[in-house]
User: Fold this.
Amino acid sequence: MKKLFISLSISLMMIGCGGGSGGSSSNNESVSQPSNIEMVLSAPYTVYPGDQIVKTSENAKVTISHIDGHSESTVILVDGNATIIRHN
Amino acid sequence: MKIFHVKIHFFVWIFLAVQLVYAAPVRIMPMGDSITYDDTVADQERPRSKGKRGGYRKHLWYMLQDAGYEADFVGSQRIGADIQPPIDPDNEGHPGWSSYRLADSTYDFLVRNPADIVLLHIGTNDHQSSISGINEVLDMIDVFEQESGLPVKVYVALIIDREVPDRNIKYFNENLKELVGRRIKNGDNLTLVDMNGLAKLRSSDYADNTHPNDSGYRKMAQVWFNAIMGPDTPGLYAFPYVLVNKSYIEKDSIIVDYNSNSVQFTTQVPVSGITF
Assistant:
């Protein structure tokens, strides 16, 4: 029973500490690429912190709606052309 | 086994220490002019006892107490010490002061009485000039934060109008929205509180043309309370300016709806884009 308790404790500590191998394994992981969403006139888009809207025509204009306390906002393209860049 | 016990004791002490830190009252500095102090025109001729004046601070104290919020009002002024049930009378309300004069003392106020939160309602005595006085107050708070390493959350109020509406206060508040939004965009820890729009003071809420009476102060306290207890957001009016420079936003397009707690506005997309 005592051994079981000790081995359980050690297991939990290892999980809590991450227990991972660390090192340079990230070198093999794929680097996430930002995704581009071409906005369509009058269509609502939900945007999140970190998202960016860039214009692709000089006259790009958007209407932005936001509810207090929410992280996301809603964006509608009302004129011109624009793209949402999302960093995944 | 002994080492195991020592480790457990260590973690228990850490846990208790964390609990003590979290249990420390939040130091709140009500800062402003006569509206924070609770001074009226009638007090110039027949002054009420300082110990009996509470203004919005009295009601806010009761609301925080009722909510179980551990607060400690701080400041060099002790106004309202005889009020029953007792309140914390400390504050930095200074009758007649302009925002510029307040800026001259802001740093010293915080050095003497460090605060976690500042409730700022200033500009009533100098709203006809620019808002640069408030900018200076906020600059001084930044200086204090940088030198002390202590963060200060500042709730900046759009100031209440006179009983007889004053167009200059409307302009003042419009400029203040942009100022606060711009500063938030640059990383300042501010929340814009629409005291004027949310308190909705009526004629019956004023002691004179400038100062609220008890019912008016109760409404102001409710707005401060909601801001302190609410989510940590920039405030609806500041939101557009947090995202986009004023010059891109369509004039009069900003619509704040307090029923849905939302804001909507239309803007051109700047060359640099809009980052959320």
Summary: The radius of gyration of chain A is 23 Å.
